[in-house]
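Thread: "does anyone have the structure for this chain?"

Original post by V.I.:
We have the sequence but no experimental structure in hand. Need at least a predicted one for the grant figures.
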Amino acid sequence: MRRKLTERPMRRCIGCRQSLPQDTLMRFTLRDGEIIADRDQRNDGRGFYLCRDRSCLEKAIKGKAFNRILRSAVDTEKIMRVAEEALNSN
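Reply from O.Q.:
Generated one for you, tokens below.
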């Protein structure tokens, strides 16, 4: 099924698991073992999306979504720090 040209791409938040337009979510990627905020949404590597809401970040941490999405054990403190910086800068 083809998407209409007027439709915006949809992505799923790993915290609340809602599908939302891509431009309303924050993207993060795993690069060289570090989680980084992908502000331009162009970085290579395994990525995931989060709503711009602290509660979604907390849900993702509680549900261990980062480990599942990134297919490796990750330090939640680092993720929390990077995500908080991205949330505060927007």
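V.I.: this helps a lot. The two ends are 34 Å apart (CA to CA).
O.Q.: and The helical segments are 54-62, 65-70, 76-89.
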